[in-house]
Amino acid sequence: MRAALYQAAGDVTVGDVPDAALAEPTDAVVRVLRSCICGSDLWSYRGVINRPAGSRLGHEFIGVVEEIGAAVTTLRAGDLVVAPFQWSDNTCPACRDGVQTRCDNGGTFGAPGTDGGQGEAVRVPQADGTLVVVPGGPDGVDEKLYPALLALSDVAGTGLHGAVLAGVAEGATVAVIGDGAVGLCAVLGARQVLGAERVVLMSRHDDRAALGRAFGATDVVAERGEAGIEAVRELTGGRGVRHVVEAVGTPEAWDMALGMARVGGTIGAVGVPHTTPQLGLFPPFRQHLTISLGVAPVRRYLPDLIDRVLAGSLDPGPVFDLELPLEQVADGYAAMSERRSIKTMLAG
Amino acid sequence: MRAALYQAAGDVTVGDVPDAALAEPTDAVVRVLRSCICGSDLWSYRGVINRPAGSRLGHEFIGVVEEIGAAVTTLRAGDLVVAPFQWSDNTCPACRDGVQTRCDNGGTFGAPGTDGGQGEAVRVPQADGTLVVVPGGPDGVDEKLYPALLALSDVAGTGLHGAVLAGVAEGATVAVIGDGAVGLCAVLGARQVLGAERVVLMSRHDDRAALGRAFGATDVVAERGEAGIEAVRELTGGRGVRHVVEAVGTPEAWDMALGMARVGGTIGAVGVPHTTPQLGLFPPFRQHLTISLGVAPVRRYLPDLIDRVLAGSLDPGPVFDLELPLEQVADGYAAMSERRSIKTMLAG
């Protein structure tokens, strides 16, 4: 089968790889309908982190179950499914706590020895715990919903998780730091899932700001650093915001989050702290903050979010502003790396 | 009147100071019945932080209202009152959010220009918002309850707040780092106010461990560092604890807190991070932690805790293991600094 392959920084190709096949009785094989490129895929593409030459890529996909292992009980061949970006058994203590991204038997698609999402098919470990069936199946679900369903495999759930960690509830005022797909989905989740009343999006890109407004941002602040903090404080009567979603992970983004959080406020952080910022504890202590962090357990949110998408009440699909066939995946990486695309969907 | 005075590191005296007197219409003057020495008073006593020579000391006291300003409406001369260690108007946005320790009109007793608690009387600013009346008054409340009521002015509420920040609820398993008065009161609050089922106290001092057990600790771990983390993990099926109270504030205590918290767990931190530990964000991100910090808004808890003390269902009084007359305050500082006393109460 065909699949995207990482060759070197700036060099992604499509090549022939062994067909996805069952290895464990708890596996399923899923034929990919749509996959996409993640902001985190760009770390190796930009040479920020190392990745072995020839390794598989991608961890977000929707597809149709082709084959199931002997121990799989909740899936059938032909089911339309959404895969979260990590597999999990959904039964271990961490999963039962809703932290499927720390499953005792979990892992990430595209890691060495596994299939990546950017390919024609994927062996899915822990299939019962991982895959969530979309009612209606491939014949009953309009293809127009595929982008929205695909977004649920990572960014929609990750953005929502940021807002959940930030304690967002009905009527809340929220600031979102980061106008990538995750930040934009945090706006969407805060407003349309959790019922926030006011969402301030930090964005200096017109196209992203426009999508943020379409997703429900009530205010957009283009300034960064101290000026950005001041602008958010001005919007909130000088006191800052009660709920901040940090969807970047850099020290600069953390400084902004800490600076704009109101006394007693909460920062929900889903931006992987790759440059491992060091947080001096005195400022958040003085500000009485709650800081909640983690790689979003997207699996937790899938059943609810799939229902919302099918009901037409939630549409994260517009985060995809470029669609390419799998064979042109290299163009997608280039477009996202050069910020010509917020998020690129791959078909076929 | 007589009051404790800081002279230099290791040198505390009692001297004559101007009588406490009304300055603002929102003030009250309180004659002190009991006051005490705080672990934080030791920072200057040990020369860790600077303090002006001749400055006043102490911020914890109970007493009787002697005089009220023209604008005070909720107090009368003769009322028995508990003062939290900071004054607050209890009406500003921060106070309404339950963060009275960030009151717009707040301040700390003993700061320059104010009376300290370790003296015969105190001018209390924002008296309506600050002081909480003890039903029954000085004639109706048994003097035996004074230690318990005095403990509410800081350590009992601070310990409880740590457990609240750590998300402790009915049936919870909790670890408490710190066996000073605050840590011991965190044990008490977690067990007897919030209903925790299991409380692990980190303590290597027999007297403190014994008091911890009396307050409800179900397990005591004497090891520190990695060995302490391992011991707590062993007690919790290898996964660590869901709720950790950090009541020290040093980098070593933070390392222990981070190491023993279960995936998805919460650290509630009331130990002022005086040496300003730097927290690398990747470990708590990977562990999906929530970290909640701040100087305890003791005022928030006073009405409930006073009721519990009067009802006989809560007794933090035993944190006081030494009682001295005010004139011997120097002996109290020495005893606490040399760890011969957990907490010293001053009378008269």
Descriptive notes:
The structure is a homodimer. By secondary structure, chain A is an alpha/beta fold. The first copy, chain A, folds into 2 domains: about 1-155 and about 295-345, Quinone Oxidoreductase, Chain A, domain 1; about 160-295, Rossmann fold, CATH 3.40.50. Chain A has helices at about 40-45, 95, 125-130, 135-140, 145-150, 155-165, 180-195, 205-215, 225-235, 250-260, 280-285, 300-310, 330-335, and strands spanning about 1-10, 10-15, 30-35, 55, 60-70, 80-85, 85, 105-110, 120-125, 130-135, 175, 200, 220, 240-245, 260-270, 280, 290-295, 320-325, 345. In chain A, strands 3, 5, 6, 9, 10, 18 and 19 form a 7-stranded mixed sheet that branches. In chain A, β18 (about 320-325), α13 and β19 form a beta-alpha-beta unit. In chain A, α7 packs parallel to α8 (about 205-215) and α9 (about 225-235) packs parallel to α10. The termini of chain A are close together. The relative contact order of chain A is 0.16. The mean pLDDT of chain A is about 95.
List keywords for this structure.
Quinone Oxidoreductase, Chain A, domain 1, six-stranded parallel β-sheet, 30% helix, Rossmann fold, alpha/beta, 19 strands, 2 domains, homodimer, seven-stranded mixed β-sheet, 26% strand, 348 residues, globular
What's a concise summary of this model?
Two copies of one chain form a homodimer. Chain A has 348 residues and is an alpha/beta fold.
List low-pLDDT spans of chain A.
Answer: none
Q: Let me know the largest β-sheet of chain A.
A: 7 strands, mixed
Percent range of helical residues of chain A: 25-40%
Q: What does the oligomeric state look like here?
A: homodimer
End-to-end distance of chain A = 11 Å
What is the number of helical segments of chain A per DSSP (H or I, 4+ residues)?
Answer: 13
CATH level 1 class label of the largest domain in chain A? Alpha Beta
Q: What's the architecture of the largest domain in chain A in CATH terms?
A: Alpha-Beta Complex
Name the chain pair whose interface involves the most residues: A-B, 35 and 35 residues
